[in-house]
Design goal:
heterodimer, A: mainly alpha, MetI-like fold, 2 domains, two-stranded antiparallel sheet, flat, B: alpha/beta, D-Maltodextrin-Binding Protein, domain 2, five-stranded mixed sheet, globular
């Protein structure tokens, strides 16, 4: 084939590929890029209580820096993120080990263990709101049956964040367990055989072999959970709406209320873009960590 | 902006002028005019809408129209409405609205369709627009435009356990001080029951707190500035928060009407200060039917100034079929439908329905219903529709009122600091254009 003919064939192939991938590209631009770009634009606008819009420049971002509620929300978001992530990773690994080793566990028991994360977050929130009601809920009834003092749970400014972290961990630990279980099942058996021959104890095997080999999988689970935890919304909105006071007012809840209850779309957009940047930063950091622990 | 005081002696009822022309149009009225059309109704999934939608099939049979209902909890309904209206979408024709909360805001944003002409010229002969509460119609009128038709009349009322009061040697409270004394007494006399419960959830507090503030003689705004740190303002903040903190249930800071009704209905509260709409929920199962008394909230130094509001039905300004939408609004707020809703415990915004023999028979069946109606009569004659600050940013103002009360319930601030912090934020809101 001559050079010209080959070039024409190549150009035609490129054109065909472009035409075939165009629908996906258009869809991606419309569904992902457009909302992001529009939100960036909104962040530079100001909206009055009656919806009148005007260009605000960087006013929303400078307001954000001096907004006490923003920094408080950021602190609450980080506290909830760290507490929930630690709980879910620790108990997720434990649950994965149980499911991995207890091969005779009936299927229904396995299903029960992992069923919470299949529940819609709104349903989980409503359920726990009732269970944890200080007056009518089962949680305090059980505590008092054992002679223990009741708790205010979600109504306590001190305990609301740990309580929300527990609810989220109850729901999403099985998800982490499933990811880690997949990692466990892919570990090479030869290293375990070698450890057994060397007389390593179960704990030493876990500490020196299983955990280091599982680290990439655990970090992957951490990345996936981090994106959700930093954007924590459903459970808090259903149970406390950011209260009591503003004790559970995460950045996402705060931005949502600013935008949808007080109609300040411009400032809410600036808040949400800041949160998005934080989420991206966390994902990048975990990705680097994953690279560092890869084997 | 002045508080929208409700009174039976409104100077010029909105529809007094329309009365002369109504009969000429009523005779030509054809319910089937928009047969085949679909009207979309964005509803708040509360007892008012639930009662109305029981008769959805009647509307569809009467008009030949299809009613498509989009029902959400109150906050989600507003969020959906904000999304739809900001997008200038026509996907909602009719929506429920609370003029006392968002009326100024929605009217200024141009979201309400103007019902003035349709309510005058496109009415069936038995619709009787003059029969609707003129005060509620006035509260729904902004810049001379009627923006919604009232669906009900409601306000927070005082539910109390007559049996517990009798056991503890207490008379029905006449003043706020009596309520506090009763709470003290019940705490020692009957340790198994929560003496007092009302709203403690931050965005919900203003609904009940406003009643107490007005009874005590306080105002939200004085000389253009936030007035929570006035003597009366501080007294109201202190009294309301103390009642909940010292005599309320654990976790009261998360309490709104669902939790309050559940607690009272289960017999675990001696006094509840909650919406009149909750009568049906509270009486479910019948346990509280015989041992509940009902009153408007007891008087303070300024007497009784009960909070009185009403949900309204509005036509979206972006609707492409406002006349068809009006037909649904007209049907839903007609005397016949409001009488049916009244028999389900939804207080009618029509005095004529309140006097209807069938309704009176239902009321007379149970003493608690008589007391409920008597309390509503006080709301209708003496009420104030001021819930939160009478400014465009009313919803945001309720946040700061709620924060001040919660700061006191949780003992996070003394009353001077709580009201000062609230006033500072609220002054900024008042000044905002």
């Amino acid at each position: 084939m001559s050079d010209t003919a080959a070039r024409l064939t190549q150009d035609r192939q490129k054109l065909e590929m472009a035409a075939l991938s165009a629908p996906a590209v258009i869809f991606t631009v419309a569904m992902i890029a457009f909302p992001v770009v529009y939100t960036i634009w909104l962040g530079f606008q100001t909206f009055s209580s009656t919806g009148k819009q005007s260009f605000a420049g960087l006013a929303n971002y400078s307001k954000l820096i001096s907004d006490v509620e923003f920094w408080h929300g950021l602190w609450i978001t980080i506290a909830l993120f760290v507490l929930s992530l630690v709980l879910q990773l620790v108990f997720g690994v434990w649950l994965a080990l149980v499911l991995f080793h207890a091969k005779r566990l009936p299927g229904i028991v396995r299903s029960l263990f992992i069923s919470p994360f299949m529940m819609p977050p709104v349903v989980a929130g409503m359920m726990w709101l009732v269970i944890l009601d200080p007056s009518l809920g089962a949680a305090n009834y059980i505590l008092q049956s054992f002679g223990l003092p009741p708790s205010d749970w979600l109504a306590s400014p001190t305990w609301v964040i740990p309580t929300v972290a527990l609810i989220d961990s109850w729901q999403w630990t099985p998800y982490v367990a499933l990811i880690v279980l997949g990692g466990l099942q892919s570990l090479p058996p030869s290293v375990y055989e070698a450890a057994q021959i060397d007389g390593a104890s179960a704990f030493k095997t876990f500490q020196r072999i299983t955990l280091p080999l599982l680290l990439p999988t655990i970090v992957t689970a951490a990345i996936l959970r981090s994106v959700d935890l930093l954007r924590f919304f459903d459970i808090i909105y259903i149970t406390t709406q950011g209260g009591p006071g503003n004790a559970s007012n995460t950045l996402n809840i705060y931005g949502f209320r600013i935008g949808f209850e007080f109609f300040n779309i411009g400032y809410a957009s600036a808040l949400m873009l800041t949160l998005t940047a934080i989420v991206f930063g966390a994902v990048l950091a975990f990705n680097r960590l994953r690279g560092a622990v890869a084997w | 902006m002045k508080a929208r005081m409700l009174a039976t002696h409104v100077a010029l009822p909105v529809f007094a002028i329309a009365a002369a022309s109504a009969p000429a149009h009523a005779a030509d009225f054809d319910w089937m005019k928009f047969k085949g059309k679909t009207v979309t109704f964005l509803a708040n999934n509360n007892p008012v809408a639930q009662a109305l939608l029981t008769y959805k099939a009647d509307f569809e049979k009467l008009t030949g129209m299809t009613l498509k209902v989009d029902a959400y909890q109150e906050q989600q309904m507003r969020q959906r409405l904000v999304t739809v209206m900001n997008a200038n979408s026509d996907e909602v024709d009719v929506f429920m609205t609370l003029p006392s909360r968002e009326g100024e805001q929605f009217a200024a944003a141009g979201w309400y369709g103007d019902l003035t002409a349709m309510a005058r010229n496109e009415v069936a002969k038995d619709y009787d627009p003059n029969g609707l509460s003129q005060a509620l119609l006035k509260a729904a009128t902004f810049n001379g435009k009627l923006t919604s038709m009232p669906m009900n009349i409601e306000g927070p009322i005082f539910y109390y356990r007559t049996d517990i009061f009798k056991k503890c040697g207490l008379d029905a409270p006449k003043t706020i001080k009596d309520v506090e004394a009763a709470a003290e007494k019940i705490k020692t006399c009957d340790g198994a029951v929560t003496p007092f419960v009302s709203r403690g959830l931050k965005p919900a507090i203003a609904y009940t707190f406003s009643n107490m503030l007005h009874n005590i003689g306080g105002t939200y705004i004085a000389s253009g500035k936030s007035n929570l740190c006035s003597a009366k303002g501080k007294e109201a903040l202190d009294t309301y928060s103390r009642l909940l903190r010292d005599f309320g249930p654990p976790g009261v800071v998360n309490y709104s009407f669902q939790q309050i009704s559940a607690l009272y209905r289960s017999g675990r509260a001696a006094m509840a200060f909650e919406s009149s709409n909750e009568l049906r929920t509270v009486m479910e199962g019948g346990a509280r039917l015989k041992d509940t008394g009902l009153l408007p909230f007891p008087a303070g130094e300024a007497g009784q100034v009960p909070t009185t509001i009403g949900w309204g039905m509005a036509v979206s300004s972006h609707s492409k079929q406002p006349e068809a939408a009006w037909y649904f609004v007209q049907w839903a707020t007609s005397p016949e439908v409001q009488k049916k809703m009244a028999l389900q415990g939804i207080a009618p915004p029509r005095p004529s329905v309140a006097k209807d023999p069938e309704y009176r028979k239902w009321i007379d069946e149970e003493p608690v219903r008589k007391e409920w109606q008597a309390a509503l009569d006080v709301l209708a004659t003496k009420g104030s529709s001021e819930v939160g600050y009478p400014i465009v940013a009313n919803p945001e103002s309720r946040e700061f009122i709620g924060q001040a009360v919660q700061d006191l319930i949780l003992k996070q601030k003394p009353v001077e600091q709580a009201c000062a912090d609230a006033d500072k934020a609220l002054d900024a809101l008042i000044a905002r254009k």
